[in-house]
Design a protein that fits this description.
mainly beta, Jelly Rolls, 3 helices, 26 strands, metal-binding, Pirin_C_dom, RmlC_Cupin_sf
Length: 321
């Protein structure tokens, strides 16, 4: 998992929480597996978790981890979105994005594509042709972040966040590397610009180390394990790859990595920490649209079918001779 690394001894440190209540672990759920797009494997990270607990997050897939043979890499066809933001964080491999607003780019180890669908957009995510030819490792995350009613129809926007732009921090004892992609931790801010106040952090906890971080009390708190195993909460509940911890109220989070030998294939505990200010509005999701009412979803379908989400750029339109 080569998402950008650094020597924690040289980084700013996040002070261990003091004088705040530790958040208890409400639930730990295991993500079921499935397939997305043209057939790439995913883990449905939020499956079985009530939407009221996830708010403002809507959906998350862990894409891969899969080692493709030549000719096997897959993506998604062109498709629409309205009413939320998609966040694609690439850990291993390469992903290419193009959309009907002219946004586009290629992300690789530790890069993030942040697309605000807003009023409506068409986009495609696929492996570059060179990766299709060669095959290779593919591993990433796609997160859907809801937009509040007042921002549902904002103009679409695309952010290309390089791995080197993430704010790199260390835990208090140097045992964990923290990559702040969006939001704030201990007074340090990530590069992602969001309509909904959220925090998104990728933490790598070394074998046997403990991660204790402050957390905004008005945010919810989720921790999804991308790789490895360890414990979560002050009562040290076991947690492993493909599991999501949902926390209760409080001002601090705790994780610890298992003291596994370095020869283990996944010696570190890799955790995606997510938190956001709940929107507390009705949510009606149907396929690629996340709105407040059924009527708004019906309108989204009508606008999409009428071509109001833009058109596929000519460079990406199949030629017919």
């Amino acid at each position: 998992m080569p998402a950008i690394t650094a020597d924690t001894l040289t980084l700013p440190r996040v002070d261990a929480p003091a004088g705040v209540a530790w958040r208890p672990v409400r639930t730990i759920t295991t993500a079921p597996t499935g397939y997305e797009g043209e057939g790439f494997p995913v883990r449905r990270a939020f499956a079985g978790v009530p939407s009221t607990v996830l708010d403002p997050f809507v959906h998350m897939d862990q894409m891969g981890e899969v080692e493709y043979a030549p000719g096997e890499p897959k993506g998604t066809p062109w498709h629409p979105h309205r009413g939320f933001e998609t966040v694609t964080y690439m850990l291993d491999g390469v992903m290419e994005h193009n959309d009907s607003q002219g946004g586009g780019g290629v992300i690789t180890n530790g890069d993030t594509q942040w697309m605000t669908a807003g009023s409506g957009i068409l986009h495609i995510e696929k492996p570059p042709e060179a990766l299709v030819v060669s095959g290779g490792l593919f591993h990433g995350v796609q997160l859907w972040v809801n937009l509040p009613r007042a921002s549902k129809l904002v103009p679409p926007r695309y952010q290309d966040i390089r791995a080197t732009e993430s704010k790199l921090l260390s835990s208090a004892d140097g045992g964990a590397l923290l990559r702040v992609i969006a939001g704030e931790l201990g007074g340090h801010h990530g590069p992602g610009s969001t309509y909904t106040p959220i925090t998104m952090i990728h933490a790598t906890v070394s074998p046997g180390a403990r991660l204790e971080v402050p957390w905004r009390e008005d945010f919810n708190a989720l921790g999804y394990v991308l790789a490895g195993a360890g414990t979560v909460g002050t009562d040290d509940r076991p947690i492993r790859k493909g599991q999501l911890a949902v926390f209760g109220e409080g001002g601090a989070l705790a994780f610890a990595a298992a003291a596994t030998p370095a020869a283990e294939p996944e010696p570190n505990l890799e955790v995606l920490l997510l938190g956001g200010q709940p929107i507390r509005e009705p949510v009606v999701q149907y396929g690629p649209f996340v709105m407040n009412t059924r009527e708004e979803v019906a309108q989204a379908f009508e606008d999409y079918q009428s071509g109001r989400f833009g058109v596929i750029p000519a460079a990406h339109t199949p030629h017919t001779d």
